[in-house]
Amino acid sequence: MPAVDHLVCFALYAANRTTTQAYRVLLEPWNLTYPQYIALVTLWTDGDQSVTSLGEALQLDSGTLSPMLARMEAAGYVTRARRSPDERVVTVSLTPRGTALRTELAHVPRCIAAGSGLPDMDSARELIDALHQLTEAMKDLRDHPEPVIAASRAPRTTA
User: What is the reported pTM?
Assistant: First the structure.
């Protein structure tokens, strides 16, 4: 077994990469990428979004999000417009075609769930909760590494 198979980071990386590849196969007939799909899911569920709020929800920076939204707009799935009194705010909305995709892509979550090997919704919820906890812990480590670094240098005692 390769040494990387013993690393949590590699297991997460491999699971993420393989999951994204599975989405790629499922979304290919619609010429959609996984980030485009999650943008659509957010718009289907939460309604119109400012580009800023959509970027925050998807954890994408504007340099990634803006070109993606431009491609989605060119494909006829979304529109972008300045609708608020603040001209800097751009609102992203679904077009009728973007709304119709919700029905066409309804099988995707079921396929991912079936392919995940998780036996039921409770197991899926537990995994999602654990991954959210891990994400928050890694954000904390990213933003405040000093305490963890200091603790990892502390002498270890054995019982």
Answer: 0.84
